[in-house]
Amino acid sequence: MTAAGDANGVDYERLRSERLGRFQEAMRARDVAACLLFHPANIRYTTGVAMMDVFCAGITTRYCVVPASGEPVLFEWEMGVPYSSRTVRDVRVAGWWPFTGGRREQRAGEAVAGVLDVLRELGVGGERVGVDRADVLALLALQRAGLRVIDVSPVSDGAREIKTPEEVKLLRINGAIGDAMMADFASAIRPGIREYELFAVLSDALLRRRGEVVFSRLVSSGQNTNPWGSEARDKIVASGDLVAVDTDAVGYEGYLIDFSRTFLCGDVRPTPEQAEAYRVAHDSLLAMREAIRPGLSYDEFARIASPVVPEKYRRQRYDLMAHGAGLEDEGPIIYYADQAANPADEFLRENMALCLESYVGAVGGTCGVKLEDQVLVTAQGAEPLSRFPFDERLLGT
Fold this sequence. Notes:
Blueprint (H helix, E strand, L loop, with lengths): L11 H18 L4 E4 L2 H8 L5 H4 L6 E5 L5 E4 L4 H4 L5 E4 L10 H18 L6 E4 L4 H9 L3 E4 L1 H8 L4 H24 L6 H13 L5 E2 L4 E3 L20 E5 L2 E2 L5 E2 L2 E5 L7 H20 L6 H8 L5 H4 L7 E4 L3 E6 L18 E8 L8 E10 L2 E4 L7 H4 L2
Parallel strand pairs: 1-5, 3-4, 5-6
Antiparallel strand pairs: 1-2, 2-3, 7-10, 8-9, 9-12, 10-11, 13-14, 13-15, 15-16, 16-17
């Protein structure tokens, strides 16, 4: 992250300060004196710094302490300290305990001792400290130290669900990147190409546009589209196959690009099975998008937006109707009305970013259709962030 703005009109100092302000406001509202964050997205949200986030998603190499007021203290991978210090005022060398054999417990204890030093500097004593995703050794060390550890998710979820103005800019920038990714992907579909080659096109299209990583490999064709969830294989795409893709990407400055399309390969007409599945998925998605308006409870939205899906498709329906999108897949989670209960006291609000999910495929069928839109909740309803068109042949237009 740069200190000032960029050619896209994003003010990074404002982005960082507003995100930190929202997080700390949520802390104070819940009487949390400090937070100890290990999860890369939470670290990035509060400090404005990312460093090897894919690696750090699985291995603890960096963490930060966020007080309810004031600046965070970042414990950074040693080689990353010079870079993170350009953005964060107080950067210290992180402890390292993974893969250290018999020294693991001692080294985790030493790392926690450094965290306790910071808490003492901040004047945090017996108050509650929110923790997001400590590994077992770190958690045990925190407990031995007598810290009042609580789950940080009510703070982090509450802060991150509503996007700041600069986050909205980044989501729109990434929406355009996603559309360009999908255009490259669609252009590459041809008989004879393999699924993993199409995935390579998708990844390349993201990286060339300053995105960061595609975090799933959800590219499938033909029978692999039913049920949903098959990742890219060496299957050869044949003429007449449906080809389904979910972008599932961390884009420019870390913001999610998450929408899906399904295409028909070759100069052919769709089969009746393909056309019906596509029409049901398409109409379901539009029903969700058109129902969005701020002020609806999650329960109300689900009851209004849940489409009437033919019985033969219900068993393999997507496992939720909508989820939040920011620095990763996040809250809220909203289920189809007949799928699970939704809160009546939590509401859609302006500047939430949502991904609307639709999958249609009959059990034992030869194909399935995955469609998904990423939208911003505005006073006027849903603003599409992903605007890539649907397959006209499958719609019968």
